[in-house]
Amino acid sequence: MSWTFYTIVCLSGSHIATRLMFVFCMKEDVANLIAPLMLRPITRWPFFAFLGGAMFCLLASSTCHLLSCHSERLTYIMLRLDYAGIAALISTSFYPPVYYSFMCNPFFCNLYLGFITLLGVATILVSLLPVFQNPEFRTIRASLFLGMGLSGVAPILHKLILFWHQPEAHHTTGYEVLMGVFYGIGALIYATRIPERWMPGKFDIAGHSHQLFHVLVVAGAYTHYQAGLVYLKWRDLEGCRGN
């Protein structure tokens, strides 16, 4: 009798343990299914604003090169559109790093976003002035756009101070530094007219400064796109934890 009772208890215990394990596994599976549904991804508008600015810049530049040979008046209009596109690209490039770095600090988020937006609008307005198109202002134009790009140093340093322990902060900063290098070299080549100034007539068709400038702008935009993906993954997973 005692052996039979022991066997029943053991079997019952095994059955209960199996049921408990089954229930635990079901709860774990359900949690894995529900977790992605409960995850609320952060807003994408800063990332889309950057993509829109990049596409507008490249479209404006393509339109300028395609139609500027039509007439003097159309050249006048297209050049302004081209400069406006560059200013839009630079200013919207700040939106993802600033918003996603300081999304949990509204004061600094609004401060940096407001500053770069005003600076971008001011640069576009200055670009529309007729006197700004004169050849003697070529270096000033490049310096203005370069200065707008350098204004991003403050939020990047601020981000590193706040999130020094976060690997994503260093990862995105690496991309942003590389982007700045591409844009900076592009602006320098554009302003100094390298390499055609060294060998006039040798780069009239291919390899002149304006072409190199566009190649570097595309490289910088793509680098910034990769940084944006890191920002999105970081904030989607962690939100404001660790801030």
UniProtKB/TrEMBL annotation:
<feature type="binding site">
    <location>
        <position position="65"/>
    </location>
    <ligand>
        <name>Zn(2+)</name>
    </ligand>
</feature>
<comment type="similarity">
    <text>Belongs to the ADIPOR family.</text>
</comment>
<feature type="transmembrane region" description="Helical">
    <location>
        <begin position="47"/>
        <end position="69"/>
    </location>
</feature>
<keyword id="KW-0472">Membrane</keyword>
<feature type="transmembrane region" description="Helical">
    <location>
        <begin position="81"/>
        <end position="99"/>
    </location>
</feature>
<keyword id="KW-0862">Zinc</keyword>
<dbReference type="GO" id="GO:0016020">
    <property type="term" value="C:membrane"/>
</dbReference>
<feature type="transmembrane region" description="Helical">
    <location>
        <begin position="111"/>
        <end position="132"/>
    </location>
</feature>
<feature type="transmembrane region" description="Helical">
    <location>
        <begin position="144"/>
        <end position="165"/>
    </location>
</feature>
<dbReference type="GO" id="GO:0038023">
    <property type="term" value="F:signaling receptor activity"/>
</dbReference>
<feature type="binding site">
    <location>
        <position position="214"/>
    </location>
    <ligand>
        <name>Zn(2+)</name>
    </ligand>
</feature>
<dbReference type="Pfam" id="PF03006">
    <property type="entry name" value="HlyIII"/>
</dbReference>
<dbReference type="GO" id="GO:0009725">
    <property type="term" value="P:response to hormone"/>
</dbReference>
<keyword id="KW-1133">Transmembrane helix</keyword>
<protein>
    <recommendedName>
        <fullName>Heptahelical transmembrane protein 4-like</fullName>
    </recommendedName>
</protein>
<dbReference type="GO" id="GO:0009744">
    <property type="term" value="P:response to sucrose"/>
</dbReference>
<keyword id="KW-0812">Transmembrane</keyword>
<feature type="transmembrane region" description="Helical">
    <location>
        <begin position="177"/>
        <end position="194"/>
    </location>
</feature>
<keyword id="KW-0479">Metal-binding</keyword>
<dbReference type="GO" id="GO:0046872">
    <property type="term" value="F:metal ion binding"/>
</dbReference>
<dbReference type="InterPro" id="IPR004254">
    <property type="entry name" value="AdipoR/HlyIII-related"/>
</dbReference>
<feature type="binding site">
    <location>
        <position position="210"/>
    </location>
    <ligand>
        <name>Zn(2+)</name>
    </ligand>
</feature>
